[in-house]
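Cross-posting from the chemistry board since nobody answered there.

I work mostly on the small-molecule side, so proteins are not my area. We synthesized S-adenosylmethionine and want a rough idea of how it might sit in this target. Sequence and SMILES are below. Is it possible to get a predicted 3D structure of the two together?
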Amino acid sequence: MKTRSILSDPMTDVRLALLRAGRRATSRQLANLRSALSYLELGQWLANDHCGIRLQVVGDEFDLFEVARRRTTGRAPLYLEFGVFEGRSMRWWSENLSQPEARLVGFDSFEGLPENWRPGIDAGHFQTGRPPEIDDSRVSFEVGWFDETLPGFVVPDHDQLIVNVDSDLYSSASTVLHWLEPHVRPGTMIYFDEFPDRDHEMKAFNELRARSAHRFTPVAIAHGGVHWLFEASHMSCHSSLPDACTCSLAGRPRSQLSSCLPGSGPMYRDRPVDPWPRTLGWAHVGPPGSYAGRSPG
Ligand SMILES: C[S@@+](CC[C@H](N)C(=O)[O-])C[C@H]1O[C@@H](n2cnc3c(N)ncnc32)[C@H](O)[C@@H]1O
């Protein structure tokens, strides 16, 4: 009897079909599915917790850095980069952060990833052997594994903190965010380079959100939502962003989302963007050619 009722459950066919499909799927296809799920979860999180914010959608990571740079108003900002590789992003910040009292510190083993990440990106990937050469006396490097360099790191005096998490792995991002937690202040910005990966950077960030006394508001995304910029504020303050939704929507049903401020929602270059595009998603609103991004990493 029991067997018959299980077999008449319509989900049984679906589960068996998924098992059959899984036998033929490649690990890359499964990684793509996990990635798709990450985007769906992030979309739902935006709808439930951040329905009224003006989330900027920009082209690539350098456009997103520019959003962060414009919000860097301190006299002595501190830019910390976790995952330097050949110094592409570090060089951008060195060239564009104009404050003479700014400090830029890059953390990396320069031995590549400590563990396998995505299919085809294994431990040792991104190995360069040494820090890049950047002709800027404000720039320095902490060479070694994060869990070895961070405990002894003396944080330079600063009045604003910008953090770039570009280390791909959950274990690396988690180490960084645990260390970072007591240093977060309202106005601290955190950039994630490979955010929509529910097993890696996104997971470490969700754990930070769950335990932190601060609220992290998404400010802008780039490359169709691969790269994300967040800004910290006091938990009691719903958002430090102008025009933010003032009603608390966490946990409220979709039907109540219309109580957000009229006209608020994701923006691209001051134009409102449909937060639920019916075609290609967030990336659809970026400037033409903006998806010619780099390889994963
Ligand atoms: C994607 S690359 C960084 C790319 C770089 N930001 C750029 O703009 O080109 C990731 C880097 O993180 C470093 N990394 C990852 N986990 C680490 C850890 N736990 N400790 C030290 N370095 C780590 C790797 O060595 C690698 O160079």
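Reply from a structural biologist on the board:
Welcome over. Reading the output above for you: The pocket of S-adenosylmethionine is lined by residues 83-86, 88-89, 108-110, 112-114, 126, 145-146, 166-169, 172, 297 (CB under 6 Å). Residues 110 and 224 are 29 Å apart (CA to CA). Happy to explain the token format if needed.
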